[in-house]
Amino acid sequence: MDSWQTALDVVSLNDRYHPPPPSSTPSPPPADTPPPTATPTLPATSSPTPTRSPSPTATPIPPSSTPTPTPPPSPIYLPLALRESCPRAQRRADVILVVDASTSMLDRDAAGTVKLTAAVEAARTFLGLLALDPAAPTTDQAALVAFNADATLLQPLTADRAALDAAFTRIAPSVQTCLVCAVEAAATELASSRHRTANTPAVVLLTDGRANPRPASEAVAAAATAKADGLIFFTVALGDDVDAEALAAIAAPAGRFFRSADGSGLTDIYAEVAVSIPCPVGSYWGKR
């Protein structure tokens, strides 16, 4: 019996015996296999930080060789309320009545009236058209100057009508007609402390003759100086033997020189003068 069968029998008859399993032919040891080569692990490379692109820098524009001129500012229109009217009721004046008291004023005119009498009546009418009130805070004022060889202030500026009427009785006629004396006397009174600065300074001068002994040109020059200081002149020529050109120059600008052939026209002339005296320059916007 083969040995492997014997062994089998033993196994089958005595199950307490477990023979070793048949050995297999040992496999030859494997050839030396080189150990696996470890793949070198590269150190972790950090991702490169992206380089920030520089912000574009604005290239400055070189200034133009010719600067652009700045346009002038446009006008701004603002509402402005002005009062340019000056009613007679609101007008105040300081008026010097200048009356020729030469001996020729005692002559009668073509109507038979003494020229001095007609002149005084016209001047009284003029005073009646003024707002004379000594008690009022604002009032017209008047004064009286008579002239011949010289000029005399018979009544200084006042709002007293009775005092003005009384002054006419003190006119004393004499020779000559010093026209420049009359102009200077009137200007002097209007430069005095009695003149109210809010009142228009005005002179109303009447004459029936030619300037003597001093020339009329001196009166024209004196009036020009006074007008530069703000005085206003009205001149009245009574009759035909007068220095009309000089009287017109004294009263310039035009419209303030009047002529009357005789005493009958004087009242109307003085009434027109009374309403022709302008407002003071300061009453108008811009001092016009």
Question: Can you walk me through this structure?
Answer:
The chain is built from 7 helices and 6 strands. It is of the alpha/beta class. Strands 3-2-1-4-5-6 form a 6-stranded mixed beta sheet, with helices on both faces. Helix 2 (115-128) runs parallel beside helix 7 (266-276), helix 4 runs parallel beside helix 5 (216-228) and helix 5 packs parallel to helix 6. Mean pLDDT is 83; it is low at 1-14.
Please render the helix and strand layout as text.
Blueprint lengths: L2 H11 L79 E8 L14 H14 L12 E7 L3 E8 L2 H8 L10 H12 L9 E8 L8 H13 L3 E7 L5 H8 L5 E4 L5 H11 L12
Parallel strand pairs: 1-2, 1-4, 4-5, 5-6
Antiparallel strand pairs: 2-3
Helix pairs in contact: 2-7, 4-5, 5-6
Radius of gyration: 63 Å
Q: Strand-residue fraction?
A: 5-15%
Uncertain regions spanning at least 5 consecutive residues: 1-14
Structural class: alpha/beta
Read across the widest sheet, the strand sequence of neighbours is: 3-2-1-4-5-6
The end-to-end span amounts to 167 Å
So what's the overall shape? globular
Q: Give the % helix.
A: 25-40%
Number of helices: 7
Mean pLDDT equals 83
Order of helices and strands: HEHEEHHEHEHEH
Q: What descriptors fit this protein?
A:
single chain, globular, 7 helices, 6-stranded mixed β-sheet, 288 residues, alpha/beta
Question: Quick summary of this structure?
Answer:
27% of the residues lie in helices and 15% in strands.
